[in-house]
Amino acid sequence: MAIAENRSPSEWQELDRQHYLHPFTDHKELGEKKSRIIARADGVYIYDVDGNKILDGMSGLWCVNAGYGRDELVEAAAAQLRELPYYNSFFQCAHPPSIELSHILGEVTQPHFSRVFYTGSGSESIDTMIRMVWRYWDLQGQPERKLIVARKNAYHGSTVAGASLGGMTPMHNQGGCLGNITHIEQPYWFGSDHSMSPDDYGLFAAKALEKKIDEVGADKIAAFVGEPIQGAGGVIVPPDTYWPEIQRICNEHGILLITDEVICGFGRLGEWFGADYYGIKPDLMTFAKGVTSGYLPLGGVMVGDRVTDVLVDKGGEFFHGFTYSGHPASCAVAIENIHILRREGLVERVRDDIGPYLQERWATLAEHPLVGETRMVGLMGALELVRDKSSLQRFAEDDGVGTICRDLLVSNGLVMRAVGDTIVTAPPLTLSHAEADELIEKAWKCLDLTQQSL
Ligand code: PXG
């Protein structure tokens, strides 16, 4: 019997209220409202314990790329758990699933990525990456290269290092305050005063890195880190000029370039990785989420030859690793997940079929009186709610219009996230055309309802 059937919906809510501390949650507020308890899922739909069917326009939390209800992934996990449920990769050991996955990851990433280090999550991948970067420069005889440049409003996870590297002030104020990290402007054209064209703005935002170099000296800067498209920050799509300019600046000053692919990786943008979409060549890439379509936890760092050569040739032992680095069942699921993405051509489907289709339909939402801008790359999009469409004037933060809209969406059968007054979406890559139509119709209806409620 499924665990969901053990208790009534209200019993689940009451036990949840009594015992469960949720991530990023105000529990006093939740205690008054009660949680939505999700019992099962299939395809692109989730079902709560009250029997509501909801289109999951967020792929869980940006991760269920291959969609729900994939028996192949369940079988892969079960078979591996029967064969070898756990063993570690410390002490000169390995096991077939982690080796096989490493080989496959080498095939789907750019040719200079021949090695991978496994973790259990995106945050652990970020911690690992930071330790590798510092180690790399120590080994290069430049230990003073310690500063890591990230962006304001970036999200890189929630461990001390992840919260510090991210650019979220509320997280910095709650212990995300590691040293040797600095944050520059994000490439958020809509959030600017619109005095520049998007292309000029992209160059301007990239030049913030050059300004930082002038300020502290390239010999102090270890790396630049960015999400190809910022996810949790509100699907900030950089102008096309941005990433090539960042690459040029990093090359010129020998700074390591790192893309955090936790959301953009594994097909989200219609290419295997965000770096491929933007035509850049990072030295390291962090990943998690979509590598297993979220069926089991797994993360990692793809390590490019420039760093591998130093870590392997000169590094000696790297004192770093996790109990679940390369967990056999997670790796088995990841292998099967990548098989699915390849077999069903899901990455190409996002690039050539469902991506362009949803993008075109999503753009029609810009005609709504509440919407100041829409944007979408692959299957990752956002719309901006505005008070005044002609001047693009936004609502006051206290109005909570984004939250009102998000709540209406969910109660009308569509999950999307509100980041302030930015509504974001990232549906499974398996989304059908009819499901895309449903997403747009529900979104339009809820924009109407939001407007009526103001
Ligand atoms: N990097 C990026 C780019 C992420 O989006 C992480 C690192 C951390 O991954 P883990 O597996 O440690 O959570 C993330 C995670 C949201 C939301 O509300 C986004 C994430 C996590 C939780 C909530 O959009 N992204």
Estimate percent helicity: 40-55%
> Could you give the order of strands across the largest sheet?
4-10-9-8-7-5-6
| Secondary structural class | alpha/beta
Reported by name, the CATH topology of the largest domain is Aspartate Aminotransferase, domain 2
Rg over C-alpha atoms, rounded to the nearest angstrom: 22 Å
The major sheet is characterized as:
7 strands, mixed
Average pLDDT across residues? 97
CATH class term of the largest domain = Alpha Beta
Account of the 3D structure:
The protein is α/β, with parallel strands linked by helices and 454 residues long. It folds into 2 domains: 9-69 and 347-453, Aspartate Aminotransferase, domain 1, CATH 3.90.1150; 72-343, 3-Layer(aba) Sandwich (Aspartate Aminotransferase, domain 2). The protein contains 17 helices and 15 strands. It has helices spanning 9-19, 27-33, 59-62, 71-83, 96-108, 122-139, 160-165, 169-172, 198-216, 242-253, 274-278, 305-314, 328-343, 346-352, 354-364, 401-411, 433-453; strands at residues 38-42, 45-48, 53-56, 113-119, 147-151, 181-184, 221-226, 256-260, 284-287, 299-304, 371-377, 380-385, 414-415, 417-419, 422-425. The protein has a 7-stranded mixed β-sheet with strand order 4-10-9-8-7-5-6, with helices on both faces. A 4-stranded mixed β-sheet has the order 1-2-3-13. A 4-stranded antiparallel β-sheet has the order 11-12-15-14, with helices on one face. α11 (274-278) links the parallel β8 (256-260) and β9 (284-287). α5 packs parallel to α13 (328-343), α6 crosses α12 (305-314) and α16 packs across α17. The longest helix is centred in the C-terminal third of the chain and has 21 residues, at 433-453. 48% of the residues are buried. The site of 3-[O-phosphonopyridoxyl]--amino-benzoic acid has 17 residues, from α6.
